[in-house]
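Structure catalogue
Derive tokens from sequence
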Amino acid sequence: ILYGKMLHKTGKDSAGKGHSQFRKAIVFCFLAGCQQHELKIFMDLIFQPFVNFATGDALSALRAAVASVDLSKMVPLRKQQGLLNTMDVIFSKLGNLIDSYLPTMYQILVCLAGVCVHVLDRRVDIHPKAINTLKTLRQLTINRITQFFSSFDNYSFSWRDIDAVFEAVVWPQVERLPHESLSHPTPLLKLICAWSQSVRYLPLLGKHQSGNKQLTPLKYVFQLLVAPTASSTVTNMIVDIIEHLLTLEEKDEEEEEMEGMVKHRITDLEVHDLVVAPQAEQIGEPTKYGCRLLLPHVPIILQYLKQIVENLVKQSLKKRAFPTRDLNILSRLSAFVKDSDQSATLIQLLLPFLERNITRTQDVEVDILQTVANLIRLVDDPKEFVPPLCKLFSSLHSRVSRTALCHVLKCISERDESISIMADIVHKLNAWDARRVEEPDYMTRLDAYKEINHIIQKMEPSVQFLRMIIYNCCFCIGNVDDLSLRDNASFTLQEMVKTLASKNCDNEVFVEVVLDTLIPEIKLGLKNKTEVVRHEMLNLFSLVVRHFQTQPKFADFLALTNEDLEVDFFENIRHIQIFHFW
């Protein structure tokens, strides 16, 4: 009686096809309070037309169902569609009460999917009006399979269960994925995405077709990622898959530590025909399985990320939406890059995002710098990136970001000893007290200034060394509260100016160090909201004008100077008082 009510009418305003899901929801809510043997009777009634799919194991049942397909004796397509809609309600209303019936439901789903795919391959024998219904049926079946994997992640899948779903759903369609899933995610792509969301299912993404090791799900997923016409909805789902593979096992381990319980393991499932996932060469600790699955596909993923960054560079600064997730993925993948030219290109694309005029979070800065640190080890000439890295000491303000930038310089110094002294001094200039973690390491920083002054007096520094010191000293003057550190930074810059002037540096050094580096920093300091900073920068500019009197750039300012401090413009401007008249 209840089964009949579900099919036809359960009360007022519940009759008709449009209310079928409503009727099913009411009936299954009632069934949730029934005994197991009563539930079984009802389930047998629902699945009675498909009982032939429930014999034996899933793989045997699938092959038997496909081999015995008779187009004239198939269960009506509408009835199959009704069953799949009913299973949706069963999963949501009775999911935790039907454990004993799950194997039957899984086999029926796999067999329905296999038969649909097989029949669609024989389109010449099918009435044209039935093709669209069959396509809808195939989509519904794969959606229910996806729902099954997501809802019952503790289900004991055998290797034959796994082989059955691949034979019915994955292998027949995966090669067409780069062409069929361009505008929106297909059910197959959603199934693969669902597998990527559970540590237990990750081996399914590493399965290859028996006898063909080149045919794997991920291969075609990433071909779709770089397809020129793929929609953002599709690429976002694939990026989700990448993110899951990179981070899922770490999150699972963190939850396990916090909750004190054992989560799913990679070895929970017996999966045949697995690809040999390589270990990464660059890192000593064992690579997570998800990362190892991605290793063969790193070049094509980087191709996509490179395009993302290039598109952002072309946009105006106001329109740029920072791809935080993409940069985080790039940061993680950069540890596995092996190509020198590719590494250099990626670094050139990433560094502009750290410039002063771009708004970003600290996490983004650290992700980019971590990526650069990983990639810099591979480029043929890491020293070529020292000039743009120097400038970042002026634009990066957070402690974590500056520490990461120092680490990048250290990575370069490991490849090129000529900048080892510079890297060491810059590290000292940004040192923090190990005992008082919120305070700078004053003694180490003051010692660094002494070392810099000694090098400058001997006139040994390179142009890049001088630029690096200018950016760090100007940052200290503008952002550090400690008076002794500010005074030392200011004194160092003054000594640098005096030494360059006394040694008659050539024009190229003057342009690169004074005009292109020091003067822009002075301009920036003169706009600072703090009066002390403005005075320091004004005093420094006065010194530059006095010591480079012969330079045409400063000729007009020379008239403002005077040996008599009472009439010297630069001295007097610092003492002007602003009065408010009310």
In short: The two ends are 91 Å apart (CA to CA). The first helix runs from residue 2 to 7. The CA atoms of residues 54 and 96 lie 21 Å apart.
